[in-house]
Amino acid sequence: MSPFSGVIHLQKGCMNMKKLFALVLALCMALSLVACGGSSSSDTEDTTGDVSTADSVEDAEASVAADTEGTTSDGSLITVGFAQVGHESDWRTASTQSCQDVFTEANGYELVFVDCDNDSATQLEAVRGFIQQEVDYIIIDPIVSTGWDTVLTECEDAGIPVIVIDRTIDDSDKYAAWVGSNFTTEGLAAGEWLNAYAEAKGIEISGILVIEGTTGASATLGRTEGFQQIADSYGWTILDSQDGDFTQDGGQEVMESYCKSYEGQFNVVICQNDNEAFGAMTAMTNAGVSYGEDGDVTLISFDACTAGLEYVQQGLINADFERNPLAAPFVAEVIEQLEAGETPETEIYMEEHWFTYDETVSSFTVDGAEQTVTVVTDEVVEAQY
Ligand code: GYE
Q1: If DSSP codes are grouped into helix, strand and coil, which group holds residue 163?
Q2: Which residues line ligand 1 (CB under 6 A)?
Q3: How many CA atoms lie within 13 A of 239 on its CB side?
Q4: Pairwise CA distance, residues 18 & 283, whole Å
Q5: What is the three-class DSSP state of 180?
């Protein structure tokens, strides 16, 4: 990754007429105040002061909240273009909401939001549209992990810093920072939890079916890779692994076909997000296959959104591996650092938790690192996104 913020600031200063005009206006106002004998402080706050790296969402949120009026030295709003993946899941809704809550006018931002409807061409178009609009910053949650270098070079040439959130870009380093978590770790955790759970319950894993997320998404690649590593190490059989596109309909469709093709051959289903799990549950119920705490199938999911955790609490999903969707406060902090001419961390990791319905497995290890498992209670559900 290339922290090219310094260069960008110079270029931004040269090219952004809107800001230049606002600066001239602010200077005139300041001069007229001095002429009247008043102080030079204004309603708008210069927020280009020191910003520390957030240790938690709360810290980052507090930092954003503290800067509620005008975040540039000239008092103009900071324009942020966000090329969002789409609206395919509960997780996605929470991610969008996080940006809409943080990048408000009250916080000194103008948000230009594009829902790319899970279409990579639309996402590239959205980014090019932001360049034309001369936004100040671009946020991308990349639908797929490749095909980015050309458009990111265009952003760099235009002097617009890009901040990548959640999914990763694997074929370009032309962005200022990435905020997210490690998908492979999520897959590894799911695998090691399953091993500990099967041992504790005396379950012999007969066959595993995986419902993958969108093909080419780093979320899919990492979760698949992590779980596969564990399956290989314990000699488990993965019978099939098909794309459910991170949607409820996709999960249901794939599970319906699995129930027909692999009848009686599987006792573990891995859904790479909660919405797929909801669809798979419907398909299994319709096919007379029981799942969860008292069922024949151990059902594992990822994301841990509120609805997912409710099913975990009821013992219908055995375990859920969280992905934190609340990246926006961290992104705001990155923007503040760039505004201040500082170089942000290039990789910012958010904390995540693993959830289950009872104490059967309260901890396990991944690559020697101790992992704790949270039992879902009403309070846990309520606190979730
Ligand atoms: O798991 C899924 C969403 O990129 C982590 O995308 C995200 C994934 C998430 O549609 O629900």
Answers
A1: strand
A2: 88-89, 91-92, 166-167, 219, 246, 273, 302-303, 323
A3: 19
A4: 55
A5: strand
Residues in the chain: 385
The answer to whether residues 1 and 346 touch, using CB atoms and an 8 Å cutoff, is yes
For residue range 334-365, list pLDDT tens digits in order: 999 999 999 999 999 999 999 999 999 999 99
The residue to mutate among 95, 115, 246, 248, having the most atoms of ligand 1 within 8 angstroms of its beta carbon, is 246
* Residue 219 CA to ligand 1 centre (angstroms): 7
Does the pLDDT at position 199 exceed 70? yes
> What pTM did the predictor assign?
0.83
Q: Tell the residue nearest (CA) to atom 8 of ligand 1.
A: 219
Whether 71 shows a pLDDT value over 60: the answer reads no
Question: What is the residue whose two structure tokens read 């408000």?
Answer: 104
Hey, whose CA ends up nearest to atom 5 of ligand 1? 219
Ligand 1 mean position to 141 CA, how many Å? 10
Whether the CB-CB separation of 218 and 272 falls below 8 Å is answered with no
Nearest partner of 241 among 156, 155, 221, judged by Cα: 221
Under a CB-based contact definition with an 8 Å cutoff, are residues 196 and 372 in contact?
Answer: no
